Each structure stands twice: as structure tokens, then as C-alpha cells.
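Handout, section 4.2: multi-component inputs.
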Amino acid sequence: MAVNRRTFLAGATAGALLPLAMPALAAGTSARVVIVGGGFGGASLARYLRRHDPNLSITLIEKDTRFVTCPFSNLVIGGLLKIDDVTFTYDKVKAAGIDVVEDLAAQIDHDKKTVSTKGGQTFPYDYLVLSPGIQFDWTAIEGYDEAAAQKMPHAWLAGAQTTLLRSQLEAMEDGGLVVIAPPAMPYRCPPGPYERASLIAWYLKNNKPKSKIKILDASDGFIKQDLFMEAWGKLYPGMIDWVSASNSGKVSKVDPSTMTVSTDFDDYKAAIANIIPPQKAGQIAIDAGLDEGTGWCAVNPITFESTVRKGIYVVGDASLAGEMPKSGFAANNQAKACARAILADIAGRQPSPSKLINVCYSTVEPDYAFEIVDDFTQTSDNIGLTYPDDRESPLKQSDAFHKREADNAKSWYANITAEMFG
Amino acid sequence: MAWRFSDVQRRRLPGPLPVVFALSLLAASAGTSFAQQLDGEALADACTSCHGVAGHSTGSVPSLVGKDKAALLAALTGFKAGKGDPTIMNRIVRGYSDAELEALAGYFSSLGGK
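Output:
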């Protein structure tokens, strides 16, 4: 693989000197695309490029040897799935002819057009796509640092944190209080905290029915709120208490040694504290200045090229993509649009018009799910909602309807992960 | 009555796709007064996140690969007209013109697997 990269380098340098109206690379040469991050954005993009161009040089730099999906990780926390069910290797990504580098991408030199890794490797690129996901703001909640997260898991990066929260639930005495504390928007997976509350409730109802869940929220409302409230009333009456920000729900301080979670007015003694801190784009994007100090990276709404640096694209949670939520589905759709724009640029033409949508299923019990679907309209300066209303599953539906949505959620998960890792 | 997708079968995922979109020469004129030639394969990018790569689905979401174009288009336009028994498709098709739905039906019907 390394030999291929060096071979590509010679031809691609000449191509970069051609006028813009011409194809970016001379005929017979292959562009080098380097992708940082092997999640829903990066893995989708790598596979999409390869499916559409067998000759591109595609390098995917990913720090972990396996990927654990945040989507469906709440099903692991609730005990419906095992962690292995949501864990994927890069074997088939590699088999597709993508150079997967297991290393942490550390630094971008945009003048030389190279990315260097913590392990000391350097990769030249013609196109660089960043899909680094999120990192946490460890300064936002007093007392909540990386050490505290070992006692009060965020479980907002799937993997060891997911299994930690699951094992805490299994060890908890009946009658304990489970606190879930979502941050203010924007954050990864806006319906996630409420799906999590639902599936923890499912586990507790069947195993520790005297226990309670309290959601201490930094917001005054949440996505699919009516659907969640309807489901909680039907499935888990009296078990989940949601405290809005204006009712002093916002967590400002924690003390892991006493398992105390504090808002500005109240202290809660928790058996389990799932603290989800505020977030920002992955560090490599911040270090490159792509967020302009905002924490998220502004992008062209059609191509996902950074508005700060030509030749660098940002997809997924790290991007600031208009009304698109920070979801795996959105990252996957953005990756395809971005890949299409890169392929068109290589060929010296405009990309065909495509579509951006988002679908987020929430499972609240093994046979009960609902969703929200967003259709987006891309303009030169925004990605807006085409239809702001009636995006969610309707209320007052039958059990059979929700069973179909639960089945479709599983089917969605199988299909989107096959697109990346299958 | 309402057109229903047939049962889903687990299918083998395809290898590299034919580069159909490369033929979309008119796309270069996007935003001009030329008639827009819709690229079904490009539009389908949004669909495959649920319906699977090249329309090969595992599970309850219907596979679309190789479906009859007229039946597919009838289902999609039917959803738009409030027909059928969809969970989500009635809300999705709102965002698509009839021409886009036809391009999508054409694309999926053109794929192998018939």
C-alpha cells in the first residue's frame, strides 16, 4: 500500500498545476484522498469513493482497530444487545482496497498538503476529508473530568464507556436512582439521552422495578418529546422524571466521591450518574482552525468543503451543517454528498444534484420504536429543513405500527453498517 | 388495494457499481436554463442509508434492486397522494418532485438482481 501512495504522488503533483476548469488530475493518474476518522462519516465516504472509482488512492486514518457504533449502543445499555453486536472491524474496508492506517491523525500541513500522525507517519493528499467526530468539553461541569467519567460514565463514545454503564446497571440495587444529564444543543444524537432513559427503564422495570430515572436536562424541550412522553406513559408510568432546564434541571457540578449531581438549586444522590458533557469537533479540526473558535466547522452546503480551507472537507458531527443533526445517518448522507463532490472535482465537472435526508429511529422497548425524518434543502449558504412540520412518527399509533418501526430500525442499522463495514 | 413491497430477502452485496453517474453530462449545466437531467443514482444516495447499497436490503426495509419501475413509481406517487400503509415513506416523499421519484424508480429498476 505504501508503495502505491508514493507512486501516486508523482503523477498527482503535475495534475494539481492544471487550470481549475480542467480535470484536477491528468488522465491516467489517480487522486489521493485521505480521510481522518473511520466512523459513520469516514467509513461511508471511503466505501462510497471505492464503489464509484476503482483507481483512487484512498487512505483512512483511524485511531482504533475496531469501531463501536453509538447508534444502537443504547440497546446494549438496556441489555437488548451485546457490545459485540455493535462492534465492527475494518477487515472489509481493507479488503475493498482502502489503505486503513491504525494511528491517530495529529496534524495537518495545508501548505504542503500532508497529514501527519502521532505514530510519525506522513500522508500527502489531494483531497483531505475530516470526520473526526466529537470530543468533550471537560471544563463545562465542575468536578466532571476524564477521571470522573470512570465513575460517572458519559457513554457518549461507544465502547468501554457503554459496557461500564451497563455493568453499573447490572450491579445496582433495586430502588436506586439513575440520573441522566444531557447537555444543551448542539450535541451528538439529540434523541439519544431519551432513548437511553427508555431502554434503561425497560431493564429496570423487568429487573429492579423500585428504581427511578431522573433526566436532569440542560434544555427546555427535546426532539420527539411527545412521542417519548406518550411511550413512557404507556410503558413505564411513574418511572422516568424529566426535569427541564428552567425547572433547575441543568447540571452544573458533580462530586463522584459522594455520587452527588448538582444543579444550581438541587443536589441529587445518584446510584448511577450518566453525565453527558457538552461537545465540540474533534481536536484535529480545531487545531487546523477550521472551527474559527466556535467548536464546529462551517462547510459549503453542497460539497462539505471547509469554508476556511480549500481542499479540506468536513463531514459528520464535527461539521456545522445547517439544520442537519449530529447523527450517524446525517454523517453517512453527508459523506456521500462530499464523495460525489470530490469525484466531480477530480473529473472537472459539477456534481449532479442529490438529496440530503436524515432519519433517526428511537427504540424504547424491544418491539416499540418511532422516528423523525428530515428532508433538507441545500442553498448556497445553508442546509435548511424543507418541511419543518410533521417530521415525526404520528402519535396514538397501534402497537403493530410501533413494532414495524422497531423492525425497520433494525433493518436500517443492518443496511447502513453494511454500507460502511460489510 | 395499496401496493405493497414484496418480502425482503437477504441478498449478497454487490461489488463496485457501474459508473452510471459519469454519463450525467448535463449535470454540468446545473443552475442554467438547460433542462435538468435528473441523475437517479445521485438522488438514490439518500435512499440507500435505509434501503441498502444498490437497493439490497437486509430485514424489514424493502429491497429496491431490480423492482419493476411502474410498480415502484406507483408506490412512491401513491405515498405522496396519501395511499398505502406506510410508516415513514409518506413523510419522506414530500421532499421529492414527481420527476425525481421517476428518476429514482428508473434507477432502482435498472439495477441487477431481476
